[in-house]
Amino acid sequence: MGELKLTVTQAKREETIEKILKLVETEFEEVEVTVLFTKGLLEDAIRKVEERALLAPLKIINKN
Fold it and tell me: What's the whole-model pTM score?
């Protein structure tokens, strides 16, 4: 698999963030979703992505 470079506009980034926030709101519609809850959820998601990246084999990371 070749190297992939992705450029995203600020508008697309903001649109994606809005979709993520809406997803959190709809997934937890039975409770009052606070900013603090959402922040914690997103921090957990970032940690999970980092953990998965750390588990990636070196042969994938060390492409010459």
Answer: 0.68
